[in-house]
Design a protein that fits this description.
The protein is mainly alpha-helical and 424 residues long. The protein contains 18 helices and 4 strands.
Amino acid sequence: MPTVSNVSSFRKMTPGILASQRLAMSNDIPDIGKSEVAIALKRAAQPLGLTSTAYHVLDILLGLSKPDDWKGAGRPIVAISNEKLASYVGRSERTVIRAIRQLVEAQVLAYRDSSTGRRWVHRNNGGEITYAYGLDFTPARVRYREIKRIADEWQAELNARREARRTVTRVSRAIVDIVEATMDVDLSDFRDQMNAILEDGSEVQEKSVALQDLYDLLVEALTEARIADEKQSGNKGMTGEHDTNVTPLFNTSSPDSCSYKRTSANANEINFPSDAAYSGEIAPEREQAERSRVKTTATPARKRSGKADFTGSAALDAVSISLLESACTTVQSDFGLSLKSWPELLSAAGVMRIGIGLSEAAFADACARLGRQAASAILAVVAEKALRDPEKISSPGGYFRACCDRAVEGKLALARSLFGLAAG
């Protein structure tokens, strides 16, 4: 039997049409139903290069085919004239003819022409096709696994591009935030490199990889600068040697409390709002503070820097309230809190503590060792991580205590955690 016996002589043969005819004459037809083939064809329409008209024609032809013709070794054939198909699509007959030819050359359909060029299907009493002339879907059935693989690969590529675009946006914003939040280290070169990567004409996947590498280098450079600064200053930030003209007031008889009255250089600038949740803790301390009041000398307020508003602990090095606000978005949305200022962070500590199931005594101990500002900042980071990935942090209270222990030892990279949360 000639390979092209079902193609009329008036058609101009192409390699694609010949390949479709060979597939249509195959005897090895997989038992794949109409719905599976239809889904695979529509998913692979773009990588197969189908135009919108060809896709529309394909959709109509699939709808006209009978599901029973797709069972077993059946050959689903659709008999419809070009004129009627053109009326369905809303295009001219010549446009429909070109669309059908494109589907045939894409090895989705095959021509099964009659001698007169007419298309019809003859069925027996059982509804089975005895002979038919029209457009044959057998090539699509034979190529089902190949078409499905093409669709899966195309979808994976689309997902990779979409994720790469998201990575480019997320990482570039994180780099800008880090550069703007860090005032004591010149990181402008990283911003210039980021702009050069964004303006490059390379693929979005390459841009995402380059930006991720640049972000890692930025975090590493910032961490090394902080470590070098700590070594150079002899870890003075942890011992309080930088806080000149400050007379700290230690309360050794009440280890449960972290809300003792502190006299600092900027005490006349900041008035923390009273929190009713801590009233039971504050009252005894005020009484004891009244009995053992220490006279302090008033000092002028220090000029604020670009760092955190409070420098009572080395754990707050490179930590600003704006960085905390941009990193702890889940805490703010889930708990209905605002972290736009340090007083608001201190007021929100009670809600966050209850939210992660941390006891008052544990938080009070952390405040006594690190200061209330540093303890609240660590609490916000722990709450954010616990809300984002509850399965990863099974015990937020224990995780908070471990972070506080590392902060006391000077090993807690709180700024790096915040940068990572902001980028994620």
